[in-house]
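Data card: per-record layout.
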Amino acid sequence: FVGHKFTEAGCTADPSKVDALVGLERPETIKELSLFAHSSGFLRPYVLRFAELAVPLTKVINDALKECPKKGTKRTRAKAKKINWDIPGLNEAWVKFKDALGHCVLNSQIRPGWPLMTASYASKYAWGSFVFQVHPEERNMDLDKMRTAEILAVDSGVFKGAQKRWAIVDK
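The structure for this 171-residue chain is written out next.
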């Protein structure tokens, strides 16, 4: 499990691997951004709203490579192109994504007697969900007021194809 750290309290991302990613300079080329995006993928289980935060960055990569074959000179040239950081919201998306990577959650062990709970969200582009436990006294509180919440699992993804046209309530 490269990049993961297991303790008695639970499982989380290896802090040294996270620090290495968070410490990277802003990429200049599509290839550098693509390498960063792929390298950060192992953090998906530890970053709330990972897919949603990654959408603006992966859109830049996908837009640059959509007309290219999977291999060859044309793709190599496309990857070498400079990123236009003047695209509205792109730099802010970069900063938010890196900030989220630096705040990985600890996936805890199950606590007997504490209720299992779930929460989910969906936006126009992405979805996410997590399973967590809270002290029994907090089970009816609003999520943002819970202080003992311990996350057991996180998952997220990006809507593709026809899924993008679904109503938010169906996502």
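Known properties of this structure: The chain has five helices and six strands. The helical segments are 15-22, 30-39, 50-65, 73-80, 90-101.

See the next section for split statistics.
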